[in-house]
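EI: anyone free to look at a 202-residue chain?
SC: sure, send it
EI:
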Amino acid sequence: MVAIAVAIALQWVLPEGLILQPRWALPAVEAVLLLLVVAGNPVRLERGHALLRLGSLGLVAVMTLANGISAVLLIDRLITGHATSDPRILIGSGAAIYATNIVAFALWYWEFDRGGPFDRAEGRQQHTDFLFPQMATPEVAPPDWEPTFLDYLYVSFTNATAFSPTDTMPLSRWAKLLMLVQSGIALSTVALVVARAVNILK
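SC: here you go
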């Protein structure tokens, strides 16, 4: 919930030209979906329901769509020369899109790996979508170790930073595809923003 709230806040502070108008529309949809999900599990994830899962996936989808649109708008402005000449705004916008990208894809990984948090907890699916180091070398972790959201956040951060998997390997095709898309967004955003900022500072 904290990660989602941070992502919504980051989207809210983006400049007018990098978000769909009216600027409150997508953050409002995300906030409503978040409230519905929280209402279903107010303290911690204790019960699964098809509608709650649909709401969670819808929330992540809207967040990803909004951030993807912002990334495309930023890249378009950078390529066409219509981006701001203020390096603080430019770097701040790129950082907000980059950070939201990390949170959104961490949620995708967390929601889909072995069917989601409830299916993982109950061991419904034998084959994992991500191979964590604790699975490959079980003696370095407690016998009942299971990945939490922070583990997926770390995977998302390292994938967006290194533009490739680091210590956790994607095994399923959907996991590889999502990591590919995330790396592409991160690489395009970071490369163009940094290049533009360096040009301005010169």
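EI: Residues 50-80 form the longest helix (31 residues).
SC: 👍
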